[in-house]
From TrEMBL:
Superkingdom in the source lineage: Bacteria
Pfam families, per database record: PhdYeFM_antitox
NCBIfam families tied to this protein: phd_fam
Lineage: Bacteria, Pseudomonadati, Pseudomonadota, Gammaproteobacteria, Thiotrichales
Function statement: Antitoxin component of a type II toxin-antitoxin (TA) system.
Residues forming coiled coils: none
UniProt name for this protein: Antitoxin
InterPro entries associated with the record: Antitoxin_Phd/YefM, YefM-like_sf
Length: 86
């Protein structure tokens, strides 16, 4: 839902009620400027994000997915350019 800053100022109660159902985008001169949402919705989107792909895999609902073995070949030094150390 979207409302202007004027509508927001004139009917804060309505904005708070509506924000329990869905985030409210508050516009100022036609441009989105703020978002009003329930605290529950805020907690869901601000939950700790995984720091790595491994953390993400471990956080998946299905534990069997987190135990995937990947065959990653060793890094080759054959394609590295020579570096002159003068």
């Amino acid at each position: 839902m979207q409302m202007t800053s004027r509508e927001f100022n004139q009917d804060l109660g309505r904005a708070k009620r509506e924000s329990l159902r869905e985030p409210i985008i508050i516009t100022d001169r036609g441009s989105p400027k703020h978002v009003l949402m329930s605290y529950e919705a805020y907690q869901l989107i601000s939950a700790k994000k995984p720091q790595s792909a491994y953390d993400w895999l471990c956080s998946l609902e299905h534990a069997d997915v987190a135990d995937i073995d990947l065959d990653i070949p060793a890094r080759s030094t054959a394609h590295r350019p020579d570096v002159a150390l003068d």
